[in-house]
Every structure is written in C-alpha cells, then in structure tokens.
Input
Amino acid sequence: MIKTTRTTLNYLTGILTTIIFVFPEVIRAQSEEVAEIVTDSLFRVDRINALIFVVVFCSAILLYTKWAKAGKPLFLRKIPGLDAVEEAVGRATEMGRPVLFIPGIAELDEIETIAGVSILGRVAKITAQYDTPLMVPVRYPLVLAAGQEVVEQAYIEAGKQDSYDKDSVRYVAGEQFSFTATVNGYMMRERPATNIYMGAFFAESLLLAETGNAAGSIQIAGTARPEQLPFFIAACDYTLMGEELYAASAYLSREPIMTGGLKGQDFVKMLIIVAIIIGVLLATFDVGEWYIHLFEEV
Output
C-alpha cells in the first residue's frame, strides 16, 4: 500500500514538474517561433532600407510629374541627335526621298526595341505632317504589329489618316544577315535621304551604317549596346548613347508623365551618386562600417 502511494506521488510529482517547468519552456519556444514567423510574414525590418528607397523613388517621380502637368518648366539636357530629327525629315521632304527607320533587330520584349518603337511614333508624326514617305523594315512579327499600330496612330493624331500606308511598316526577314542584306539593297536602290537606327543592334550595325553612308543619307543612330556604339559613331552623323535612347521619347514628346518620370529617375540617380561618393570617402578613412550596413540587405 505504501509503495503504491509512493509510486503515485512520484508520478504526480513528475506530472507537476513537467507542467510547471517543461511546458512553459515549450510554449515559450513555440511562441517565439510563431512570433518570428508572423514577424517575417508581416514586415521585415532588415529590408526597411529598400522601403525607403522605393518611397523616395516614387515620390520623386510623382512630384516631378505634378510639376510637369502644372506647366512648370523642367530642364532637359540638349541631345543634338534628337534635335536633328525634324531637320533630317525636312531634308528628305525637300529631296523627295523617303525616311528609313529601323527599330533595332531584337524582339519586342527587349527594352531597346520598345524605346525604338516609341521613337518611331514621334518620327512618324513628323513624316505625316510633311507628307514624307516612311519605310520601316522589321525582323519579327510582334514588332511588325506594334510598328503598324504606332505609325497609324501617329498619322491619325497628325490628321493625315488617309496618307497612312500600312505597307510602310513591313516584315523583311527573320534571319539577321538576310534582314541586313535586304535593307542594304533598299538603301542602294531607293537612296533614302534620312536613315534612323534606334534600338538593339548587333554585328549588322556597321554594315547598315556604312551602306547608308555610301548612299549619301544623313544618319541618326541610338543604341544601348556599348560594343556597337563605336561603329555608329564612326559612320553616322549623330549618335545617341546609352540612356539617351530611353530618354528620347520624353525629349521629343514633352508629355508631362514621361517628362516627370525622366526627371524623377535623374533625381534618384543623383542621390545614388552622392551616396556612393559618401561611402567611398568613409571607407577610405575606415569609418564607414555603419554606413555600409545600411545598404547590405537591399
């Protein structure tokens, strides 16, 4: 009887000990895990620097867009190649020759192609106003559809819908050098007064630019491919380099939303440059450990 009572007491003591000392630790650990999961799922404190960057970036774009819509003059650096577009189209009009526009040779999912097609809309509006023939050879079907839509819209906005020729934007060839040979043949036969290359170009860049130069055309090129820029600089009258290509649409149209976006991006770039300079100076004097940590999780 005594043994049974003692065993029962030991059993109850073990249960009480477990309840008093073990369960709280388990519950506490589980609570910490749950809290950690909830914390991770709701808000990551270690990424607050990314949040600040996004807020500053969006605020800058919205603020500059608001200023542009309000009519506040926003400074845009002169880009000679874009200033020469209207003059080049006017030259083609005077000579009675077409304008050749090539929006690169890449697919429509390339940002350079999108920029080229956007610039095509601005050029098409000028050719519509001057009643100048426009020729746009493309390499891919999606670029063909986008190009036709953009050119047609430009003619409608210029009030020259009857002058729009759907065949002005045409599919030429799907292979790189077949496309190049066809366009070069067109240059030598039709002798366009103005050649405009805007988009992604590769090994064919020098072939196109040299043929256009031999045909006596005024040439304006733009690409974000650094390895192709030397060829365009050597053979063209004007060359847009790097981000000038992406700024071209806002520069030509002066639309508030596009201009505001461009100025907002420039403002954020300046902040990044200043941050880099500060970081370099602090790291040079070996006092910038805290500053570096601010950007580690971005």
